[in-house]
Specification:
Elements lengths: L9 H14 L14 H33 L9 E3 L7 E3 L6 H37 L5 H32 L12 H14 L3 H11 L1 H7 L7 H19 L5 H4 L5 H16 L3 H24 L1
Antiparallel strand pairs: 1-2
Helix pairs in contact: 2-3, 3-4, 3-10, 4-8, 5-11, 6-8, 10-11
Length: 304
């Protein structure tokens, strides 16, 4: 495009429009694409996809190993609790937790969150690398994406710590059996109703929107970051939205059996369908209704 002397270059026009929008309170960012070979984009996609597949496979292998080692074949475990170490460790139910047990349970929850949440994070991580490759000529999008992913999983690690504390509190109150399943129908019903009701809230809708629209998320929150600290902070922000979107579903693991692989897969599948399908919001609403009905039934059963 040529400039006749009175016009403006397209880049300047875009910058002016962005400035007007920012003054109007609309967050936006101008992005100037740089030429990138298709083969380079394909290579980035393959590298990131393989890394996430390996990470997910390792997490699920660990969970399967723990689940197999916690199956006691019908043995009477009254008065004991299983430590999810994969080595058949048991402790008397009334014995206080040792620091080692706390660490083992935390690792279980952290690995479980990685296994459940990695598949639904794939679109965001691929988009981050692609935007970095196409907007920053001298960027290192693979390293930046690794830092972004680290921030994302760090948030879920913090959530795993909260889940560990919740499990400790439930066990101290004798609300969990040796397989980490709720011993109270009333508590199970309350957890299901709470999780189902949250599916219909505005906060759920906002967080789900942030998780379902990777490119829009980047545009709203400053775009690609070249430095490690910026990538980490952006990953933390995205992880926080994902906890806001899906965190309320995780207590349902106490309603079933925390180390029941089928139950874990069902919740992970629900999360995946909510976040990556075009009808994810409808699935969230439907799941919320089902959970409220199921929780109400459990409450009535427990009270009667």
């Amino acid at each position: 495009m040529t400039d006749d002397g009175g016009g403006e270059e397209p880049d300047q026009i875009a910058a002016n429009i962005a400035q007007v929008l920012r003054h109007s309170g609309v967050p936006c960012q101008t992005v100037i694409p740089v030429p990138v070979q298709t083969a380079v984009l394909r290579r980035d996609r393959i590298v990131i996809s393989l890394a996430l597949i390996v990470l997910t496979a390792l997490a699920w292998s660990y969970l399967l190993w723990l689940s197999a080692n916690m199956d006691m074949g019908g043995m009477d475990m009254d008065g004991f609790r299983m430590i999810p170490s994969g080595m058949g460790l048991m402790m008397p139910a009334q014995t206080p937790w040792l620091p080692t047990e706390f660490a083992i349970v935390f690792v279980m929850w952290a690995v479980m969150m990685v296994g459940m949440m990695t598949p639904s994070a794939v679109p965001m991580l691929l988009m981050y690398a692609r935007v970095g490759r196409q907007t920053e000529e001298h960027a290192r999008p693979l390293a930046a994406t690794a830092w972004f992913g680290a921030g994302y999983f760090l948030v879920w690690a913090a959530f795993a710590l909260l889940a560990t504390l919740a499990q400790w509190a439930f066990e101290r109150a004798a609300l969990l059996d040796f397989k980490m399943a709720s011993t109270s129908t009333v508590v199970a019903g309350l957890l299901a109703v709470a999780a189902g009701s949250y599916q219909w809230t505005k906060l759920k809708d906002v967080c789900l929107t942030e998780c379902r629209t990777p490119f829009a998320f980047l545009i709203r929150h400053g775009g690609f970051r070249r430095d490690a600290a910026g990538c980490l902070m952006l990953g933390l922000r995205h992880g926080a939205y994902c906890v806001g979107c899906c965190g309320a579903l995780m207590p349902l693991l106490f309603v079933g059996v925390a180390m029941n692989v089928v139950w874990i897969v069902l919740i992970a599948l629900l999360v995946l369908l909510e976040k990556v399908t075009s009808f994810g919001r409808q699935i969230a609403l439907l799941a919320g209704g089902v959970l409220v009905v199921a929780g109400a039934w459990l409450l009535l059963t427990g009270i009667s």
